[in-house]
Specification:
There is one protein chain. The protein is an alpha/beta fold and about 260 residues long. It has one domain: Rossmann fold, CATH 3.40.50.720. It is about 40% helix and about 15% strand. It has seven helices and seven strands; from the N terminus they run E-H-E-H-E-H-E-H-E-H-E-H-H-E. A seven-stranded parallel beta sheet has the order 3-2-1-4-5-6-7, sandwiched between helices. Helix 1 (about 20-35) crosses helix 7 (about 235-240), helix 3 (about 70-85) packs parallel to helix 4 (about 110-135) and helix 4 packs parallel to helix 5 (about 170-190).
Length: about 260
């Protein structure tokens, strides 16, 4: 993609939280391919280093950093290191997630652990980095990764006859993420900081394929007849970070094969 293209991230410094999972790795690949100088932050820096080695060898500007998003000092320290190393922060992708709850009847302790990462961690991260972008003449763009499970209720039909199911904390956090996104879009818009959210539908996992009964039912719920591939989410994120989306803020963009529109 030519550097002059408004869809390019060349010359932009982007921080991505959460880059070790199936979607996280795909986002690293998409942002790196779009030309971003990408800082990938996680609790486990060593795993991130391994994950970005191939992209680095291919000449992409990829960097690993350690962070604990539940600790305000840790997040602020990451912000300061990125600013010291690169001079500015143009974009942020919040893809960090913790899934401590295993079923509907799991403990209150598991719920509270989930809150600490998925709600408090989100709040700390957005405020810390939005403040940094607001202090820059050019502002910046934050993109949160939610889920269609923040938009709709649980559908038990999908899981019949499988060991799969839903957990309440995920619906709670992803729904809350949508409105927190709108809140910060309103608050920081006058300072040229855009805040949007991408809500992926179900993503097929080739390493641990979902059961066939689930795959068939899920496909029937979409307009495209299948689950997403992880690589198909990155384009929406790149777009919202880019100058091509300079007049878009407060938006929830479903990337779900038509699931929520059907």
């Amino acid at each position: 993609m030519p550097e002059s293209s408004p869809f390019s991230l060349a010359g932009k410094v982007v921080v991505q939280f959460g880059g070790t999972g199936l979607l996280g790795r795909a986002l690293v690949d998409a942002l790196g391919a779009a030309g971003a100088t990408l800082v990938v932050a996680s609790r486990d820096q060593a795993t991130i280093e391994k994950g970005i080695a191939t992209g680095r060898a291919a000449g992409r500007s990829l960097h690993a950093e350690q962070v604990d998003i539940t600790a305000e000092g840790s997040v602020a320290g990451l912000r300061d290191r990125v600013l010291a190393a690169h001079g500015r922060i143009d974009g942020l992708v919040f893809n960090a997630v913790s899934r401590p709850m295993r079923n509907e009847r799991d403990s209150v302790a598991a719920w509270e652990e989930s809150i600490k990462v998925n709600a408090t961690g989100l709040f700390i991260t957005l405020r810390t980095f939005a403040d940094a972008m607001a202090a820059q003449p050019a502002g910046g763009s934050l993109v949160n990764i939610a889920s269609i499970q923040g938009m709709v209720g649980a559908n038990p039909f999908l899981y019949e006859g499988t060991a799969m199911g839903t957990v309440p904390d995920y619906f709670f956090h992803k729904g809350g993420m949508l409105n927190l996104t709108r809140h910060y879009a309103s608050l920081y818009g006058p300072k040229k900081v855009r805040v949007n959210v991408v809500s992926p539908g179900g993503i097929y996992n080739p390493d641990k394929p979902q059961p066939e009964p689930f795959l068939g039912r899920y496909g029937q719920m979409t307009m495209l007849g299948r689950m997403a591939e992880a690589r198909e989410i990155g384009g929406a994120v790149v777009f919202l970070l880019s100058d091509a989306a300079s007049y878009i803020t407060g938006v929830n963009l479903p990337v779900d094969g038509g699931y929520t529109a059907k």
